[in-house]
Every structure is written in C-alpha cells, then in structure tokens.
Amino acid sequence: MKTDGGSDAAKRRAGERAAEAVEDGDVVGLGTGSTTAHAIRALGRAVDDGLEIRGIPTSFQSRRLALEVGIPLTDLDAVDGVDVAIDGADQVVDDPDAPAHGALIKGGGAAHAREKLVDSAADRFLVVADPSKLTECLERPVPVEVLSDAHTVVADRIHELGGEPTLRAAERKDGPVVTDNGNLVLDCAFGRTDDPDGLATRLSAVPGVVEHGLFVGLADVTYVGREDGVERRE
Ligand code: 5RP
What we know:
Belongs to the ribose 5-phosphate isomerase family. By secondary structure, the protein is of the alpha/beta class.
C-alpha cells in the first residue's frame, strides 16, 4: 500500500530541512520512503562536504540509497545509541489538543518493523511529511507484518478486533508483498482510530504479529514540507 499524492517538492523540502538537524558525529537512523530519500540524499551531500556520520538503514531500499550517496553505515548492535532518526509516515495526527497528537501510521513501504526498532532507539525521532499526511485522527488501514504461516490465523484475530484485513499484493507480480524480513503484510482497516495506543497494545498481543505500523508516542518533531517552505511541528 502506498500513500497518495504529496508533491515531490514538498517532500524534498521536509527531507532536506530534517537533514540539517543532523550534527557531526551523529549516528543516524535512515528511514524508508520517498520523503526520507530526500533526507538521505542531502546527508550524502553533507558527507561529501565533510560531515562525519554513521547511518543505520531501515530497509534494503534505504541501505542501497545510503551506499549510493556515500553514507558510512553501521548496525544497531555496533553502536551505543542512535542520536537521531529521520523517517516518513503515511499519516500523522496533527492536533495539539488530541491525546494521540503525533501518533503515526507507517508501513506503506512494508518496512515498519525495522523502522520502529531504529526510530524508537533514537534520542530524537524526526518525521518528514508533506501536508497530505496530516490528519485529525488516524483512519488509514494499519499495516501489520505477520509470519507467513500465521497470516490466516492473524487475519481471523484482526476480524475479532473489529478490523478488515487484506493481504498486501505485490504490484508487478502475481503474489504477496514479502518484507525484508521474509514475512507478509496484512493491511488492516479499522476505520477511524481514536485510541491508537489501545489498538497498538491489542495488535502487539496477537501471536504471529511481527510488528504493526502504529507508532504512538515516538515522534519528537514533524517537518511538514509545503510549497513555500517547511513547518516544524512539535
Ligand atoms: C515505509 C514507510 C514510509 O515512511 C511511508 O510509507 C511514507 O512514504 P513516503 O515518504 O514515500 O510517502 O512507512 O514503511
């Protein structure tokens, strides 16, 4: 499942502004997706200009791009911590009065398991988004990565939780999307989700679920790229 719309110029502004927050010596979590790709390219240019960082990619896609632009890479188990992570989102709750303000749905690129691992390990998690991602409440289907043997039993449990699961199909092949971890993805429609924290807890408790795309209480800042600049939302 990919996200709709969002101009590339707005994504580029958000990604490039977030990259400016990275400092010399930082260990940087490198998220996945078209918005984060702009941040990775900007970091590659900064490395060419002398910035010393080490990146931790969250997917095959971000690893390949980081290598292409010359960012030295490392692993979570080879560092003491992650200073900052930059990552995109499919939806961001943008309502300072809502308890779920800052909650995200991620996983449009099926990379949310490793993204959550790296983003949650970071001292600062910077979300990069275009305005089409902002919402008053989460309502897109929640991507749920599942062990392949478990996808039918997990689908039954998702129904019991009030969701409508769909096995994500590969766009150009006659078969399902297979994640970097060798698993499958169920996109689970729950409609409007006013209590993402509760839903996250219920999803995590289902045997066979590897990780779901609800990121609650993790984001520190959202950089929203607009046609005429970048807005920094906390
Ligand atoms: C990948 C993700 C992406 O960050 C999310 O889908 C946003 O992608 P894009 O920046 O291309 O709109 O969660 O798993």
